[in-house]
Every structure is written in C-alpha cells, then in structure tokens.
Amino acid sequence: MLVGYNTNVPYKGKLYHVQTEDNGRKNPLVVTLLYIKGTILASKKTSYAHLVEDPDWKEKVRELMKEQHKAMMKELIRGAHTGDAAGIAEEVPAEPQVTAVPQAAAPAPAAPEEPQPEAAPDAKQQISKSLDDVLLDYIIRGGK
Fold it and tell me: Is 102 helix (H, G, I), strand (E, B) or coil?
C-alpha cells in the first residue's frame, strides 16, 4: 500500500477535503474522496489490476494517484461538486495545504509561510497564477 494524499481546499468560504489512497496490490484500486464536514460529496475509483505484475508498478500507481487527486481538486474549483457551475471566476480561493501522509497517521502541520514580497504600486505589473497553476506546481514539487 502506497502513502496517500490529503488536501484541504478552501473554496467560497467553505473548507473541502480531498483524500486519495491506494488499497494495495490485493485490492488494486486508487480511491479519491471529496468531503465537506465529514460528508462525501464525490468519489472516484480507478483499478490498477493491469499494473500489479509490472516491475515499475509503484511508480505507475503513484502517478495515477497524483493525477486522480489533481483531477478531483480541479473539478472542485470548477464547481462540479458544489452546484456552482461558474467555478473560480467569482472567487479565487487561498492556496490549499497539501500533505502526503501514511494512511494511519495524521497530516503533518503545514510549513510556515514564506514572507510575501510587497505588492507593486501598479496592479497591472503584478503577475498572478491561477489556483490550478499553484496546485500543480505544489504537487509537482512534492509539497516543497
């Protein structure tokens, strides 16, 4: 069984939780759940039975887990599971906390935030990233 992913995503004043886990080689499924206040809003299950005999199965399953986790977060911020089809155009949520934790352990505390540079006097000079870009950068860097 591989280490899973847990992400808290603030969106439109509510805190959602995305959890992705591997059920192990004996039950080769990757399961991603989207929660709000302990209630499951959405789930996605993907079999990887075709990979269990592959010598690189762990790396391939890890990639499957990352992709499925990111896809659920993207669906959330597009409003797919909140009844908000307008998505993030109305409000840009804060950067989520992403941690990879063993299934039996609690999430590690978030690292201290780095100081942000002062805003440029002219707003047109500021460069901003979409939440998708921030999430993808964070996940690709492995939470660093």
Answer: coil
